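User: Just a sanity check before I run the rest of the batch. Below are the structure tokens for the first item. I only need the designed sequence back.
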């Protein structure tokens, strides 16, 4: 009873704030203050885009059709859809309960011998002058450099402004996102960048010359500020992506392979071994260095961009690929007991901040796969 009273109290704090935010003519005078989990819930439910997205997911999902499809499919494939109305009080209570379970309760959850926490907002900022700043521990702050000023706000977004003085063209800072982390950066031109786990981005405080160039390792989603006279270039070890103003995702965890997915606008892929290739909205380019030519195909872009909105979206995706993504976010080590299991295909839309054991339990439904967790090691084996 004590636990439920605590849950109800925390839920009331969150819902009272949201009521004031959405129902009053003016926004509340102060920002919400609570523990990190409560603040994350408020941040997510305060975003109109998140609520619209949840409504769309619910509208698109036909439970009867999905179940019928599940029965017809080979047992190696399963459709799992976890969707909800974001403002539902029941979901809010459930989210709080998941984050509040006592250790004894956690012990009773199947598959779990140790709670594996999801990733979080964290990064290391390495300035051009050699200074390093752990952004996980840093709240709102202002950093002065020779090139300009960097602002880090209370919700973990980096913004930079140039100084009036001259800036060297090779003056780049580096933002390093470790395993189990993500971060949001706003460049000096207004371009928004969402950085995924195990990613590095080199960027200047001010873009000099005729182009706006950044250097990427890992994965990032870019919403580029339009400037027709100054193209934006994402340089990687596997080639460059050029754009004037658009939104797209670039993945280059393997330095010999690049995947660029265009959501809107237009981008082109440039590499010395290939003629320039232009992509249209809804298209994806995949290229491995050494192959004859890049492959361009139409895709559901949501599958490749939802990570920035705190979701995993999979559609008939190999289990080996899914576990690579989960391992990067939850900082896991994965062992497959047979090669055959790697080719099992799964589909679903899942909350990145959910307990990983709950996600794996869903994956077990309708398949011959069993997941066992020991510490931060997940063993994938055939179900008996």
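Assistant: Here's the designed sequence for the first item:
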């Amino acid at each position: 009873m004590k636990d439920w009273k605590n849950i109800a109290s925390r839920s009331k704090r969150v819902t009272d704030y949201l009521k004031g935010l959405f129902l009053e003519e003016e926004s509340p005078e102060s920002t919400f203050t609570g523990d990190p989990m409560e603040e994350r819930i408020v941040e997510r439910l305060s975003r109109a885009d998140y609520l619209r997205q949840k409504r769309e997911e619910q509208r698109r999902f036909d439970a009867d059709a999905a179940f019928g499809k599940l029965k017809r499919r080979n047992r190696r494939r399963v459709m799992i859809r976890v969707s909800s109305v974001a403002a539902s009080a029941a979901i809010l209570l459930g989210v709080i309960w998941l984050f509040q379970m006592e250790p004894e309760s956690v012990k009773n959850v199947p598959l779990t011998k140790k709670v594996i926490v999801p990733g979080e907002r964290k990064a290391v900022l390495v300035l051009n002058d050699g200074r390093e700043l752990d952004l996980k521990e840093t709240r709102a702050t202002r950093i002065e450099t020779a090139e300009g000023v960097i602002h880090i706000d209370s919700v973990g977004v980096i913004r930079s402004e140039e100084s009036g003085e001259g800036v060297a063209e090779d003056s780049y800072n580096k933002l390093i996102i470790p395993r189990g982390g993500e971060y949001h950066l706003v460049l000096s031109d207004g371009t928004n960048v969402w950085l995924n786990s195990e990613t590095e981005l080199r960027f200047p405080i001010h873009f000099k010359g005729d182009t706006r160039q950044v250097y990427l390792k890992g994965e990032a989603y870019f919403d580029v500020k339009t400037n027709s006279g100054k193209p934006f270039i994402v340089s990687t070890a596997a080639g460059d992506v050029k754009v004037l103003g658009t939104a797209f995702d670039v993945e280059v965890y393997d330095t010999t392979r690049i995947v660029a997915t265009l959501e809107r606008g237009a981008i082109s892929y440039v590499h010395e071994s290939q003629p320039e290739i232009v992509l249209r909205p809804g298209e994806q380019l995949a290229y491995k260095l050494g192959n004859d030519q890049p492959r361009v195909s139409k895709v559901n872009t949501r599958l490749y961009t939802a990570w920035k909105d705190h979701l995993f979206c999979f559609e008939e995706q190999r289990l080996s690929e899914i576990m690579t993504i989960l391992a990067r976010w939850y900082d896991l080590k994965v062992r497959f007991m047979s090669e055959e299991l790697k080719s099992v295909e799964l589909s679903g839309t899942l909350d990145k901040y959910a307990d990983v054991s709950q996600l794996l339990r869903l994956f077990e439904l309708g398949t011959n796969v069993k997941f066992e967790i020991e510490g931060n090691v997940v063993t994938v084996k055939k179900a008996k």
